[in-house]
Backbone:
């Protein structure tokens, strides 16, 4: 298959429209359209569904996109290994993550990895879990470290660690001395809550629906560190994963108390890679280190 046509095809698949792909590639829409038509003729089947709001991959198109992305990454892996034989062995590991593991956990693991791989460089991009997963699916990042509550297509889970949700509060809060709490126990206290779209909020809403509980949060944000700061200065409670706060509890004067509602035990912290991809050796070594750090008892709580 023509490599230029494949490159154009992948950009249209990624951006979802000919016009956006045209802007990114600096190629005329007519030229893109011809290359897509050429590939479809070669494959003998449509690769996109043409919809009013853009281009959506068909099943055949998704199969071709996955193959093309893996092929590109395999070419990069071989080239990197060859360069490593003659150059200084530098490697860049591209990580996508959700916010919960970005401020403290991942930088600490990066620092640990550099002790044994001093030529490693890291790129970290933080987003919602679904976006982090999509970056791995598209091949722009080597791996995603994010919370998940459901299987993802075209993704291989390298590591999965149970990640129950905790109630976070000041260390002198009346609930801080409890071994565990229920969502009903939180009803009399102000609540600081994540926006829609993150796993904590999704599971919280499910649990509240099952319990018939209605909360009116006093503070809602898409920035979890702001929620943590808020509870330090008030009697409010927020929800968190233990790995998000484990190194900050004593420093910030906070307490994390397990929540008994089983619905809040349904998510996992995952290390995700593209399904079917052969990972470079440095990425494999980094995944192994992530596994070790995630399995430490103080991480899982």
Residues:
């Amino acid at each position: 298959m023509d490599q230029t046509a494949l490159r154009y095809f992948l950009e249209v698949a990624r951006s979802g429209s000919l016009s956006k792909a045209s802007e990114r590639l600096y190629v005329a829409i007519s030229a893109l359209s011809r290359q897509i038509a050429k590939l479809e003729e070669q494959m003998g089947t449509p690769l996109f569904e043409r919809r009013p709001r853009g281009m959506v991959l068909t099943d055949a198109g998704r199969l071709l996109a996955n193959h093309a992305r893996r092929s590109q990454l395999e070419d990069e892996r071989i080239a990197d290994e060859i360069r490593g034989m003659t150059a200084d062995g530098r490697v860049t590991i591209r990580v996508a993550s959700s916010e919960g593991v970005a401020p403290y956990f991942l930088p600490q693991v990066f620092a640990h990895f550099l002790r044994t791989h001093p030529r490693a460089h890291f790129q970290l991009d933080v987003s919602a879990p679904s976006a982090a997963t999509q970056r791995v699916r598209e091949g722009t990042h080597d791996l995603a470290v994010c919370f998940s509550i459901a299987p993802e297509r075209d993704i291989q889970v390298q590591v999965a660690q149970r990640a129950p949700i905790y109630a976070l509060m000041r260390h002198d809060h009346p609930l801080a001395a409890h071994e565990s709490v229920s969502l009903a126990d939180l009803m009399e206290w102000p609540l600081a809550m994540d926006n829609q779209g993150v796993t904590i909020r999704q599971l919280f809403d499910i649990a509240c629906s099952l319990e018939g509980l209605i909360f009116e949060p006093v503070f809602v944000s898409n920035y979890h560190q702001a929620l943590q700061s808020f509870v330090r200065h008030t009697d409010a409670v927020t929800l968190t994963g233990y790995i998000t706060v484990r190194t900050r509890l004593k420093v910030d004067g906070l307490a994390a108390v397990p929540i008994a509602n089983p619905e809040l035990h349904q998510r996992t912290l995952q290390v995700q890679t593209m399904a079917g991809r052969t990972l470079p050796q440095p990425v494999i070594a980094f995944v192994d280190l992530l596994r070790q750090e995630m399995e430490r008892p103080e991480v899982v709580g």
